[in-house]
Protein: STRA6-like
Amino acid sequence: MAIVYLVGALEVGVAYLPFFACLSTPHRVLGGALGVLYTLMWLLVRLYDTITCPSGMILGPYEKLIILWPFFLCLFFLLGRFVYIIVKAIRIHLKLQAEENEEDVYFHQFRYMTLADYRLSDYTFDELDALKDSLAEIASSCNETESVFKYLIPSMNEFSNVARKSWMATTIFSTITSVTYTFHVLVCYRKHLKRLWRGQKSFLPEKFHNPSPAVSMAAITRYSGWQIAFTLWGYLIVHFVQFLFALMFVYGIVLPIQKGHILSWLSNVGIILLTIFIVIALVAVQIILVQVFFLQPKLSPEDKEKPLAINNRKAFHCFNYFFFFYNVIMGLSNCILRLLSSCIVGTWLVSRIDRTIMQRGYESMDPGCSVGGRARVRWLLLYTLLRNPSLILLRKRNKLTLVDNHDPLLLARALFSQTQQADSAEDKTDEKEPTQSDV
Structure:
């Protein structure tokens, strides 16, 4: 299977390589023209396939259109991008537009790939409805008056409706969660990059301050793939967990209220809230009793608190003995709460490779943080080295030493241009550091 996955990855890479080559080539007219032709070929073939055979077994008559609409959107965007590249290159050739210096421009390349549109879809719920209908037929064919299927069919019908609506609602919430997470990752990336530009590495582990050059270069090939994979898995897991919580919410709160069982529901909620209040009150009572009866008086009236010294030792032992059994029961409940909190936080952070979901001391058992996190840090360090505005200006100043000294006019013009760029970059930042937009 590993070989099959490798061959599949190579196939996808070969298929999409012309897009990147046409976007990154210095021959803008040739790259734009070939990009337009290659994009049109993909677009026409996909449109012909979608029009001639649009249906599918899962999503119905418009399955391919529903799944491939992001792919078509990306192809139209690429087509417009290549046309823009051709028009810009022609304008520069006709002297209608000034040519930009490549060292002063940040090239952002976007990777477009077809991703399977994950969803439980109506197919699963339709199968659930089919199962319900089959049970109804079995119940009608039975001669017995009291058949178990007659009691099972209403529950199946109710569960089908609840699950369908819950899945649609959680799809929206999980999508919003994934989008906000993506923007949060971009914000963290921007903050970390600016701190590295200023030479601040305190937020990085000490072993990552001087990484190996070979490992840092290899991190470039790993980081993007790891980040995309963890983001996709995070979306799927968060979606499923939210779906389970939605089912518990509907069966625990919504349905009892709809069925007129609001009084029993309020009594159960009242018992739960009263139990929580009593637990909190008993914890406070323990602290108050210890403060009043089992601590020695203050050494000085100016002291804010009593010293850590036991008073009434025998009474304290009796107090500790009787509360021991209560604390055991409270510890059992807190253990369950700890497990639930760990599951919720771990599920929420499963797609983040810059944070670990394991406890302190067991971080190495988390492959996302131990491997993916190292790839991210080393990629940040290498990108800082290659695209730091200060280093770019320094390299450009060093190139001036290679300029022919017999041409003083060219040398003076280059020096004046570099001085203006450095001054404008320093004026636009609060930390006296040039930013990405200034260079």
